[in-house]
Amino acid sequence: MQKILIVISLLMAGISIGNIPEFMERRNLGEVENNSIDEASGLAASKINPGILWTHNDSGDENRIFAVALNGGNVGVFYIDGAENRDWEDMEIGSGPVEGKEYIYIADIGDNEAKYEEKYIYRIEEPKIPENHSGIIDTLINVSKITFTYPDGNRDSETLLFDPLTKDIFLLSKRDSDIRLYSLRYPQSISEVITAELVDVLNFPDDPEINKPYNYITSGDISNDGSEIIIKTYSNIYYWLRDPEESVTATLSSKQPAYLPFARSVDETQGEAVCWNSSENKGYFTLAEEKIFVNNTEFNFPAQLYYYERIQPNDLEIDEIIRDFKLNQNFPNPFNPETIIEYDLPYARFVESTVYDKTGEKIADLVEQYQNAGHYKVKFDASSLDVKLSSGIYFYRINFGGEIETKSMVFIK
Predict the structure, then answer these.
(1) Is residue 268 a contact partner of residue 261, using CB atoms and an 8 Å limit?
(2) How many structural domains comprise the chain?
(3) Can you tell me the distance from the alpha carbon of 110 to that of 116, in angstroms, rounded to the nearest whole number?
(4) pLDDT tens for residues 64-97?
């Protein structure tokens, strides 16, 4: 089988400064396939591997991170050379010391009992994952270790923020009624212990957490362009719109956050991971631990990958608003050796499209990725296949978030 690349796609508009965006309710993208991901605590969308998310487990796991497809499928496991998962709590992807490269930042910052003076952030260049590859097992080398302490005593933290505009790192304390915001200014030393700077003390709107006196901050993310900040607790997802001339500290301290949709379902009671979608749509993903403790009783729920899609404005600069899913007849038809298949997506979904012969045997994968709303064209080139097609009827099928449509096409020699 071979994957046929998309040749035309519609780029959707972003948000305008000053407007708080709207998001749809939670959508289940699929169960996480890799059973080793049972205490997901960090989540980050790849910058160089479209359709891939990175995650890791909480304390006590091996020194590894996981690559996950947007339908929950297992892409690979990557071990971090020389690292230890004492209590990994969050991760980010951002720029670093070498221009043009993207780095994964893994925050070993958890400390429930506040007993560790030194905390660590591991920085590794993000690897490029080969297309059509799954089940990879690899080790990432050339790992940098940022070691730091807090200026006001040992702290527990589960939230790492990376500012793409300055390359500064921010950390939020977890077990404090007044949330402490710390910074590690760029460039962060990897040769000596840094003292984090306490830049502000924040008061978020109260979280309606049962029998918990504090706002338990568990994860956060800053959008690729630096304009949007989300911070997650066990009960809420907060949102800030940031002016380009404003610092992260000024945004968090001077503006009241908006509340974004969050299902608060029982299987996300121990939800500790959130990240922006790195595509233009910029919705956000959540992922929770599988083990939930309620009244000292353990419950287990399969880890589900959830997505909250951004509602696009009605004044998009396109000829016609796409309101329905539609798969068009290929053209030309009959064809030899190339034909174009077109389809419309009214909103973002994970799309799978394949070609079959009349016996039901799969011939090629056309599309297998998360796509934004828009009109798409895909070229199917029979001459590029490893097998030679005989003249006859073939079928192309598209699965659009569970909605499936099939059409036939004729190949002639």
Answers:
(1) no
(2) 2
(3) 9
(4) 999 999 999 999 999 999 999 999 999 999 999 9
- Beta strands at 40-45 and 157-162: parallel, antiparallel or unpaired: unpaired
C-alpha to C-alpha distances, 311 to 12, 23, 59, 308, 370, nearest whole angstrom: 11, 5, 36, 9, 16
Q: What is the pTM of this model?
A: 0.72
Domain interval for residue 236: 22-308
Instruction: Name the β-bridge partners of 199.
Output: none
Query: Tens digit of pLDDT for each residue in 264-278?
Result: 777 787 788 999 998
d(CA 80, CA 124): 8
Residue 315 · residue 261 · CB < 8 Å:
no
CA 57, chain centre distance (Å): 15
Alpha-carbon distance 320 to 318, whole Å?
6
* Residue 163 counted as domain residue: yes
Q: Are residues 123 and 220 in the same domain?
A: yes
Q: For residue 255, give the CATH number of its domain.
A: 2.120.10
Question: Are 290 and 393 contained in the same domain?
Answer: no
> Is the Cβ–Cβ distance between 246 and 267 less than 8 Å?
no
- Same domain, residue pair 246 and 339: no
Give the tokens for residue 406: 């099939």
In this structure, are residues 245 and 236 in contact, taking their beta carbons and an 8 Å threshold? no
The Cα 161–Cα 252 span in angstroms is 12
